[in-house]
Amino acid sequence: MSETIGDAVQMEVFSNRLLAISEDMGSILIRSSFSSNIKERRDCATALFDARGRLVAQADLIPIHLAAMMGGVHAILRRHAISDLAPGDAFVCNDPYLAGGSHLPDISVITPIHHDGQVRFFAGNIAHHADVGGRNPGSTSGSSRSIFEEGIRIPVIRIARGGEVDRDLVEMIAWNTRDPEERILDLNVQVGTNVRGGRMLCQLVDRMGWTAVERAIEDILTYTRRRLRNRIAALPDGEYRFTRELDDDGFGGEKIPLTCIARIRGDSLELDFSQCGREARGAVNLPESALQASVYYSVKAVLDPDLMPNQGMIDPITITAPQGNIASPRPPAAVAARAVTSNRLCGAIFGALYQAMPAERVMASCNDSTSATSVSGWHPKRRTTYIYPESMGGGAGAFADRDGQDAIHVHTVNSTNLPVEALELEYPLLLDEYCFVADSGGAGKHRGGLGMARQIRIRHDGTTASLRSDAHIVPAPGVFGGHPSSVTRITRNPGTPDAELLYSKASGMAMKAGETIRVETLGGGGYGDPRDRPNELLARDLRQGKVTRAAAERDYGADKVARALGET
Question: Which residues 6+ apart lie within 8 Å of 256 measured at CB?
Fold first, then answer.
């Protein structure tokens, strides 16, 4: 079709109609789900695609899920002729190598949407299921060596025909997990969510007519594509490189470089990951869909945060990642802990793109990580095995004009933390403490955001815990003289004679009643020379306990601390 764009106001209205449908689907999925990981932590996403598999709208939920839904749609189109898709069909999938998935706990349901007998759209949703089987409860162990250890693998397969859910398939999936009731209920909600989205899409087509809808889709994709190309063209041509590192590959040893080379030529952008480290022995490999989602999110966040999330933001970007390194693993490499690598790789992309931008737009490195725990045991009230998953953020990087945000998820993981009341109501666990980590943000003219601490107490014997974390060795660097952050620490039974500092990817730990696990995440990097920090901001940090006096005197100088507190 022509690159000419129609009426700008009508295009904006139409784009927001599509966005409202995808957001409504997300709200339905969250409010109707059974498991706390979806209904409370919102570890899910929804999106709409056209019949060619192009993204037309995405809800504002979890960025890493985007390309997995896209991969599911493309897998359907590779396997089936569009004419073979009947009204009421729905497909389920999760496998990174067979169906474009992200990791096995993220299960996608994709539904072709018919209007007047023709497939016009695909409605998609994806949800992180708390367990899908495998060697360790939670199915996200950082130390698995193969995808076969990580849970049930689901290629693209019909989960509904003619509007009827295939109960045999749902139960086959569910009974390969540790909490089948949760899986059955949540999978049915995922199917129903797309039915609701399909009805809203058909109502939109009824109101506008298909010809007008088709033209409007082309307009918003063309506009988004052109807008991103303009943002790229405004940057100086060149090659820009930045590296972040993982502590290890899941089994200790050397740090693993995650290098992004950004090549800008006119209005085109290539992101090259050929210099990333080797394919990991453990589960921190990044499958193709997670790499794509990391790239699309990062480019949007750095160059144009208000850009509409659709295919137009994808087309101008070229991704280079030769198979066999950590950013392009070969099957059956393990990928359960891919979020750790995704967030760190986003930090590398940010760092590369920032080199082409003025200093006032640069942000220091964020925590670029996600520290996850999975606690599992017998639930005496539900009479079944429970799995409590939790992922924690940390500090965001500082900017030229402000401190970084405290205790926040960054990049491609955007879930909430489970509220204390919900945790203690739904699981036989107690939360001892939930707080900021003092001194965790990097010092600077503007301070990096603080990390968070969360301490969980076990109530019953026979409980197991697994970790999926990083940044226990490598902090978040500062910029322009700003200091690096702290590092993450995970401790078993802190404050007791049995206290033990844990490895970042310890798995299958047997725990007894009364034992605790404490996670303290890293902060963000600082921006600018600490000597330039305004005294009133330093005094506020000290009063609020965000920075201790000892750390402030070390990083800012004893004289400056005394002046900030009015002692001289």
Answer: 245, 246, 248, 249, 276, 277, 278, 280, 284, 326
**Tokens representing residue 540 in the block:** 């506020």
The tens digit of pLDDT for each residue in 177-201 reads 999 999 999 999 999 999 999 999 9
Q: Which of 51, 94, 422, 98 has its CA nearest to residue 201?
A: 51
Percentage of the residues of the chain whose pLDDT score is greater than 90: 95
Q: Measure the CA–CA gap between 79 and 54, rounded to whole angstroms.
A: 17
Q: For helices 210-233 and 288-303, give the axis angle rounded to 10 degrees.
A: 70
Average pLDDT over residues 531-540: 97
Which strands, in side-by-side order, build the sheet including 256-265? 238-246, 256-265, 268-272, 317-320
Number of H helices, E strands in the chain: 12, 20
pLDDT digits (tens, 9 = 90+) for 304-325: 999 989 999 999 999 999 999 9
User: Are 69 and 215 within one domain?
Assistant: yes
Instruction: Return the ∠ at Cα 65 (arms to 250 and 172), rounded to 5°.
Output: 80
Nearest to 213 by CA among 14, 464, 487: 14
Strands (E), 215-306: 238-246, 256-265, 268-272
Give the span between the Cα atoms of 298 and 227, in whole angstroms.
16
**Three-class SS of residue 39?**
helix
Looking at residue 443, what DSSP letter applies?
P
**Residue 490 structural domain:** 362-533
pLDDT in tens, 74-100: 999 999 999 999 999 999 999 999 999
Q: Residues 439, 215: contact at Cβ < 8 Å?
A: no
Q: Please report whether residue 312 resides in a domain.
A: no
| pLDDT value, residue 4 | 60
CA 90 to CA 77: how far, in whole Å?
13
Residues found in the chain: 568
Rounded distance between C-alpha atoms, residue 450 and residue 403, angstroms: 10
Residue among 142, 51, 64 nearest 101 (CA): 64
402 within domain boundaries: yes
Beta-carbon count within 10 A of 332 CB: 15
Alpha helices in 360-468 (DSSP H): 420-426
Q: State how beta strands 256-265 and 268-272 pair.
A: antiparallel
Among 187, 206, 224, give the residue marking a domain's end. Answer: 224
**Tally of domains in the chain:** 2
In a domain, 564, yes or no: no
CA distance to 224, 228, 264, per residue, from 233 (Å) = 14, 9, 8
Look at residue 2 in the predicted model and tell me its pLDDT. Answer: 43
> What is the residue type of 506?
A
Please tell me the distance from the alpha carbon of residue 519 to that of residue 434, in angstroms, as a whole number.
10
Pick the closest to residue 387 from 28, 171, 130, 35 (CA basis).
Answer: 130
Mean pLDDT of 437-465: 98
Look at residue 413 and tell me if it is in a domain: yes
Q: How far apart are CA 277 and CA 437, in angstroms?
A: 31
- DSSP assignment, residue 128? E
**pLDDT tens digits, 242-273:** 999 999 999 999 999 999 999 999 999 999 99
**Residue 1 above 70 pLDDT?**
no
Q: Partners of 270 in the beta sheet?
A: 263, 318
User: Which of 200, 224, 248 is the last residue in one of the domains?
Assistant: 224
Contact 125, 190 (CB under 8 A): yes
